[in-house]
Design goal:
The complex is a heterotrimer. By secondary structure, chain B is α/β, with parallel strands linked by helices. Chain B has eleven helices and 19 strands. Chain B is 27% helix and 21% strand. Helices cover 37% and strands 14% of the residues of chain C. Classes of the chains: A alpha/beta, B alpha/beta, C alpha/beta. At the B-C interface, helix 5 of B face helix 4 of C.
Chain lengths: 224, 445, 323
């Protein structure tokens, strides 16, 4: 981690709260369109911040459909046990996995996360889903795609594409955890990076754990 | 026994910590005390005694040499080496060997092995009961009359718990000025016991050995000794309560003597929290309050002697779970250092006191004639020279015992033995063992 | 950093809550068709059981297998262990096999400590019960069970009143529970005849009583310990009848308990001795759940000790020496 004398350049806001709301609304419309009215749809948020995003998406989809459809199922899928980088740091606390009662078998499932980075988190989510059941389809919705994929994974629904360099950090704040909706881009490796698994930590950097030998300090691997 | 032809002159040494003098040792005796005046033609070996303290050679009333039977743990020879390096010139070898030393034949065997080793005078202890079974008196008289001249009798390892048998034994040995040395442990109160019964045993889940199991036997035995007008010796006193009983008994004029081990002067039951069996011993390590009471008692003479209870055990008997491990610790080579650390460095006792507790008094109790003598002209030259100022870390690899079960490994202790003389011949010279009888297994270090 | 779970005292408050939270997440696994997680794939967990204990061994075995670990079972009967092979030699064999963790149950207090400190193995040591010393995972599953029933399944056990009844002197379950329950903020009362209490118990972080009836009306939890009939021969109590009358949890006593109170037992139970059969099978009894919870809790322990490159719990608060 290269030390910076102090936080000289304040993080740039790349999405403010209005833009976030519009992105979610747009994604909701796209989902309704592509799934032809979203019958049986299951949204699974990846903790932590994927979960409130999934909840908001589901609410928006329900609004769009009015009373015509049954409420969209929402749940959470913790991928900690399926991570490919477990042996690189102390065992992490598990986050909540909560599946809708009707399950995922033969249903269209959309994974929801805040930032798509290396793709490893999503790959872990696919592994986790495999042990749970057999969805009819699995798609991915993310608020931010920041590039630098390390696996052949792509998002089907993207709120905003934000090209970044590896050394930059993308910080997503959501009202449910952080009191405010904003996405910021920072320059430094961020000493206060806490990683996405620790719940309501303010101003965290969402991880999509990048390759460990990357100098990138934005992963939650940096602070341990 | 090789005859001594060398004369030793120890210059400016401090006998019992007093004013420095020269000592001249010749023909097995202390020839001169004062300013050395030797025939220039004689073969003389000079020893610089500056800063050293001369004590009468130490006498141990309680050692386990394991031979015959457990020569994998120790032999009379290896135990003698440890004793010499520890500054001892005489020791009493306990009877719980295999076979038990309950006949003239076995005690004579042990006595001869000691003579052949030639490093320390080995006085075998005779068992009180046949096979240590606590049922029938052993032939105490035959052992007393044997060439080993046994005067101390003990079932140590076990308690003579039957009150009638203890009474008979106390009475019987009066005929030849013998003494019964009791290992005080009421067996029913200590079945399966592993460590001192206290807060720590409760937390660790190890069966406790309550202090009362020792104290109750001592209380009974001093009253018996009084009743039959006999002398009694109490082995390895370990509790404050035992000290009080002995103090009371002495105040009544009861002829009781008592010993304490070096480890009971230093270590407590806290050591057991590691579950390392090197700290497992019988009687067990007890509390800080007990350690303090024992130190005070040794200082004021309520406890008469320090005796090592040197208990070697083969590696596999200690390198295991606590419950399966054997009881006992090494002690001969480190005894003086531990006493220096716990009694002299703390100001509780001076070197004259050390001489009394570790040489003069044990020799008297064991009726060992030529040890524990004053450092005076004409006396047998059984001496040890000690450097009180040195401090060193106990290294298990440097222990000459066959076994390795010392609880002091890694501890820094004061006071090193520089020279030990047995009848004017050095068994330890400049810190190294001198083993002339066995030149091929001779000097160590 | 120490990588062992030898005593309940090894766990700080936060460690203990982390184990319970992790176990709660893992418990949902039981409802899935595929009851497996890949997390400990490639790791080897050895069950080294010197004492017969089908229940605990199976529980650990299930926990390890559900995390995809390879499991090797060494049990006392009919193995080199029963032929007198020393703990040391057995440990060296396990090390040669590459054991990442050794779950050990042994009849001698302190055997897991020897295994952990003697440099015979490099893996983690998990105490599954040593002599009369401790049984930390039992205390964890007990705490988990209490939390599920009385605390909404979250947080710690702050302020809950737990009464533990029986042969405390010989009970490793009691020792671990006293330590862990205190760590989690519960109030513990030990109830036992005086002969079955350890020396120094009055300085433990709990209350002590000889009178079971006096403790019932305020108890949130009553945990009954197994009392062995053999103790009678050593005069710890005069007869089974007297023990049962004074310290057994019968129907009448069960009715004195508050409505929400639960009855626990680590098993195996002496029905009719320390607990009446009807109470053991009654509505307050959570004995069966304790067994079920054991698997999730043991999965949590294995995961938190072995799942990363370093343990996430038990950073050496220190075992038996509590002040």
């Amino acid at each position: 981690m290269t030390p910076t004398p102090d936080r000289v350049a304040p993080d740039r806001v790349v999405l403010d709260s209005a833009e976030i709301a519009r992105a979610i609304t747009r994604i909701a419309h796209e989902i309704v369109e592509r799934t032809h009215g979203a019958p049986d749809l299951v949204l699974l948020g990846i903790p932590t911040r994927g979960v409130p995003l999934a909840t908001r998406l589901a609410a928006r989809i329900d609004e769009i459909l009015g009373n015509a459809g049954t409420p969209v199922s929402v749940g959470s899928l913790d991928v900690t046990m399926y991570r490919d980088d477990l042996r690189m740091r102390p065992a992490r606390p598990l986050l909540a996995t909560s599946l809708p009662a009707s399950g995922v078998d033969d249903k269209p499932v959309i994974l929801v996360d805040d930032v798509l980075f290396s793709g490893r988190t999503i790959r872990s989510a696919l592994d986790a889903l495999r042990d749970i059941g057999r969805p009819r389809t699995v798609s991915l919705a993310v608020l931010v795609d920041r590039g630098h994929r390390e696996l052949p994974i792509r998002a089907d629904y993207v709120g905003k594409n934000i090209p970044t360099s590896r050394s930059e950090s993308v910080r997503v704040s959501l009202a449910e955890y952080d009191g405010v909706d904003v996405v910021r881009l920072g320059d430094d490796a961020a000493e206060d990076v806490l990683g996405d698994d620790l719940g309501a930590a303010p101003d965290h950097v969402t991880d999509d754990s990048a390759s460990p030998d990357a100098a990138s300090a934005t992963t939650d691997g940096s602070e341990s | 026994m090789p005859t001594v032809t060398e004369t030793y002159v120890i210059r400016s040494v401090s006998p019992l910590g007093g004013e420095p003098v020269d000592l001249v040792l010749a023909e097995g005796r202390i020839q001169q005390v004062g300013t050395a005046d030797v025939d220039p033609a004689a073969t003389v070996i000079d020893i610089d005694g500056q800063g050293l303290i001369a004590l009468p050679g130490l006498v141990d009333l309680h050692t386990h040499l394991r031979e015959p039977g457990r020569e994998d743990a120790e032999t009379v020879l290896t135990g003698s080496r440890a004793a010499a390096l520890g500054g001892f010139t005489a020791l009493h070898a306990m009877a719980n060997t295999e076979p038990v030393a309950d006949t003239a034949g076995v005690v004579e065997q042990v006595w001869r092995l000691g003579r052949d080793a030639g490093l320390v005078d080995v006085h075998p202890v005779g068992a009180v009961t046949v096979g240590l079974a606590g049922e029938q008196l052993a032939e105490l008289g035959a052992m007393a009359d044997s060439v080993a001249r046994v005067r101390v009798f003990s079932d140590d390892g076990k308690c003579v718990h039957d009150p009638v048998l203890m009474r008979r034994a106390l009475e019987y040995v009066k005929a030849f000025d013998g003494v019964i040395a009791q290992h005080a442990q009421e067996p029913r109160l200590t079945e399966g016991a592993q460590m001192h019964e206290g807060y720590i045993s409760g937390v660790l889940g190890l069966r406790g050995w309550p202090a009362v199991a020792e104290e109750a036997i001592i209380a009974r035995d001093v009253l018996l000794a009084e009743h039959v007008s006999s002398r009694l010796h109490v082995c390895h006193v370990s509790t404050a309560g035992s000290v009080e009983i002995i103090r009371w008994a002495k105040s009544r004029g009861i002829d009781v003597t008592a010993e304490v081990t070096p480890h009971h002067l230093l270590l407590t039951d806290e050591s057991a929290t590691t579950y390392d069996p090197v700290y497992k011993v019988n009687p067990p390590l007890r509390t800080k309050a007990d350690v303090e009471a024992l130190r005070e008692a040794l200082a004021d003479g309520t406890i008469d002697v320090v005796a090592t209870d040197h208990a070697p055990h083969a590696v596999q008997d200690k390198d295991c779970e606590w419950g399966s491990a054997a009881f006992g610790m090494l002690g001969l080579q480190t005894a003086l250092s531990v006493v220096a650390e716990t009694m002299v460095e703390t100001g509780l006792m001076d070197w004259a006191g050390v001489a009394d507790r570790m040489s003069i008094a044990p020799a008297r109790i064991g009726r060992v004639a030529d040890h524990g003598r004053p450092i005076a002209e004409g006396e047998p030259a059984n001496l040890v020279l000690v450097d009180p100022a040195t401090r060193s870390v106990v290294d298990p690899a440097s222990l000459v015992s066959k076994s390795r079960n010392s609880p002091y490994a890694g501890l820094e202790l004061p006071a090193g033995v520089t020279h030990t003389f047995l009848r004017g011949r050095p068994t330890v010279f400049a810190g190294s063992l001198v083993d002339r009888s066995h030149p091929d297994r001779g000097t160590d270090e | 950093m120490t990588r062992h779970l030898l005593s309940a005292a090894d766990l700080s408050h936060d460690d203990a809550v982390l184990v319970l939270d992790t176990a709660a997440e893992l418990a949902v696994l039981a409802d899935r068709p595929i009851k497996k997680l890949p997390t400990l794939r490639g790791r080897t967990v050895v069950n080294l059981f010197y004492e017969d204990s089908t229940r605990t061994r199976i529980s650990f075995e299930a926990a390890a297998k559900r995390l995809s670990a390879d499991v090797i079972n060494f049990s006392a009967k009919g193995s080199s262990v029963s032929k007198g092979e020393s703990l040391k030699d057995t440990a060296l064999t396990l090390e040669a096999m590459g054991a990442d963790a050794v779950v050990i149950r042994h009849g001698e207090s302190g055997a897991p400590h020897r295994l952990a400190t003697a440099d015979w193995i490099s893996g983690s040591v998990i105490n599954a019960g040593d002599g009369t010393h401790e049984h930390p995972t039992q205390a964890l599953l007990d705490a988990y069970t209490i939390r599920e029933h009385l605390c909404g399944g979250v947080g710690d056990l702050n302020g809950r009143s737990v009464v533990i009844v029986g042969d405390v002197l010989h009970s490793r379950v009691a020792r671990s529970n006293v330590l862990l329950l205190d760590t989690l903020g519960a109030h513990v009362t030990l109830v036992s005849p005086p002969t079955l209490l350890p020396n120094g118990v009055h300085t433990w972080p709990c209350n002590v009583s000889y009178d079971l009836d006096a403790c019932l009306s305020k108890a949130d939890v009553v945990m009954m310990l197994r009392v062995q009939r053999e103790r009678m021969a050593a005069s710890y109590f005069p007869t089974e009848r007297e023990y049962s009358r004074r310290y057994g949890l019968d129907e009448i006593r069960a009715q004195q308990l508050p409505d929400h109170a639960i009855v626990m037992h680590p098993g195996p139970m002496n029905r009719g001795m320390e607990i009446a059969a009807s109470v053991a099978d009654g509505p307050r009894s959570v004995v069966v759940e304790q067994v079920t919870n054991g698997v999730s809790v043991r999965m949590a322990v294995l995961y938190l000790l072995l799942g990363g490159n370093e343990p996430a719990i038990a950073s050496g608060r220190g075992g038996a020496n509590r002040d």
